[in-house]
């Protein structure tokens, strides 16, 4: 599976935004019109109430537009009616009116009235006296019925009664003959209100989210209708007469139960936008193909398996959304839709894209993940249309090649038997075992079938936790190795469970084999018992995880149903204040996690690798058959240009540590690739994990790290964490190398001789604090690196990977990195911060408030996350002091703390916190300190598409009181603007304490995190 290059959860959102664009456009237009109107001469006044009391200025008789919105008003002063003779526009939105104020009746010249977002239960009869009213908005109230008097508003052109509790409309409604726009969506209408049919001027109508499930046959009477919203109504069909609405331009039918359109739908020749998402279409509606002017077509989340060739008749299409259907192939003619700008295909069963994709050069929104793509391979498709075009050109010029090398990854605890299993599978003899770190070997598994694996043998040593996730990539086949002799049911988590969770978090939907070794040391009964136990517990863990995810998804669903206004009414409510948008993102993420589970192949196979081997041949055959299984594992069937595959083979033969662009270009030529075609080949090889090539890094883009075994060898030197091995490397290399260790080290600008004891001290410092000077690194890495440039490039690479950072010395930066120091944060072992580190208040200081953002990880804390984060934040902080689970530093003059809370017995989830503090008036400084770190962490967490985590903002009042479990406000608020008018929030923990809004919401919303 798939990285999160694109955010799936964004998609639903984007689609919704898009379909709301019309509405937004209307709002903008209104706002613009209003301000123009106001500017063009209306005298306007905005008043703010104090303690819900309105104080009127002396002379307001000339005022023509009065804005009293956002004031918590419950009534209006009586004298208003007599003093506002010229009032035309009255804005009363977001107050607390329970009924329309009586004085309104006296404002007979009123043209526009906005009473949305109040607590109205009815509209008073007196309202009928507003004879001049052209525009009335009473949306978001609790109105159960409209008075008959509404029919008296003869001038009315726009009416918004959406988001109320209306069950029907009064008969008099049909006399509103001037009405052009009616929003009656999100009410309780149980039948299509026939009163509307009399409104011959109506151009825009929204009836979404009501309770009726069918349209009347005489719907055709709405002859002027241009924009029609009928979303979320559960309609199963449209009447044939619908096709007579020939002025229709935009039609929203998403969220219904349509399985077909009426046959004469093609009569709707003015239709430009059509939303049919979330319906039950199994067949592409043929009738749509006649609507030649269509520009936007949304068919997401239906059951389509086929798109007709005739789609090219819709030559004006700009947006085409077909995601989350069951489409197996696209028609070749789709590339003729040359006006397309958005093509969304994700979540289908597409394996091959039609040729000539380059013709779709205008497409700028392109989503294809969650398809079993083999041609072009997934890695190419993800990079966008230009890369697909290059691939297809390459394919046209060069022959086809199939069966590239496949990644096979062995994982499991130390001493599980991975290495011996690898050797047994490959039929190579044991050449001394031991702990060598990660190993990469190529295995020609079946020459006849042209099956070659790149086998990654991931060390079980916990020191490699930081490094291992780099090797867990989509498109690999995974083998989880378990030592059956030492396995006991109690140790399931340690032997099996945690590896599955790790894999699922990094590569959701990966294919895994579980193999038990040491079968020779177990009795038959024991074998059966243990393999069954593993099998059973895998099922149980999966069930439990799915259950908790399901529960979370339910909570989100409930919160969404509640609606934003209920959610923001009280901090006691779950997801307090979280926007619909953020909740939908959360739901999409949870849906993704629920859908993309690991594919664990059963049964657990038991093998023995020593003595008379058992089941090794069987395992070999199973691996091959799974690898070749097109449905489980499409990767082997992807089609590559022969030139790309040749380049891969040529690169493999070269033993250098890295290649310059020019050397790579020479090999490219041998493979038949001109220089300008090299880039796409390299980029494909990088994406599929065959080499490292960072086309977007200024420091590295001129170099190709094609020799993965050597790069891995270098990582092994750093992560073995074995003092005597390191010392051996230093000394033996020093002695073996002609120039000797001392002279080499003397090249350091200090000019000081470094004796063995010095080197030892360096190693001690390295093992404790993760610090090494580049001179010693150079010694350590010999003979893997040879030149100063090797060293320089490797250090750039390690920094790019986030394994270490270069320590900036405040006084001098050494020329060409000669005596630079590097810090490897995963080595920091001391539990105590160094002296002089910034301290957070532990006692309740009276003036300082703490800002505490906490990330919690209920299933799995990504291994190496703290160390990687520690590298990423270095450019944001100064004066840092690191200990094993904590980083204390400053952002400018403001202290920040990053703190990891390892698992504790009885505690629910492992957490990582970002903390700062400031006095309340200066709270923005603390936010400024924390925000970039939050954004760095969000970026890192994107590498874990299957990870479950949540973010909380801990209540600063609770923190100040030293509460054991401070109240958590939802972290989603970080990406939301502070609500208008909100100054304090009550902390639910003790019911009375008020938390200043500045302690919960940042001054400006942070960039939206992906989850
Ligand atoms: N008896 C027996 N010993 C095994 C088997 N597989 C591995 N070993 C031994 O178990 C130890 C650890 O194996 P190794 O492959 O190095 O484990 P790794 O840490 O997972 O790579 C070595 O001493 C192996 O010889 C097996 O199937 N049967
Ligand atoms: Mg091993």
TrEMBL record:
Keyword Isomerase: no
SUPFAM superfamilies: L domain-like, P-loop containing nucleoside triphosphate hydrolases
PROSITE patterns linked to this entry: LRR
BP GO annotations: inflammatory response; innate immune response; intracellular signal transduction; regulation of signal transduction
Pfam families according to UniProt: LRR_1, LRR_8, Roc
Annotated signal peptide: none
InterPro entries according to UniProt: Leu-rich_rpt, Leu-rich_rpt_typical-subtyp, LRR_dom_sf, LRR_domain-containing, P-loop_NTPase, WH-like_DNA-bd_sf
Assigned keywords, A-Z: Leucine-rich repeat, Repeat
Protein name in UniProt: Multifunctional ROCO family signaling regulator 1
Lineage: Eukaryota, Metazoa, Chordata, Craniata, Vertebrata
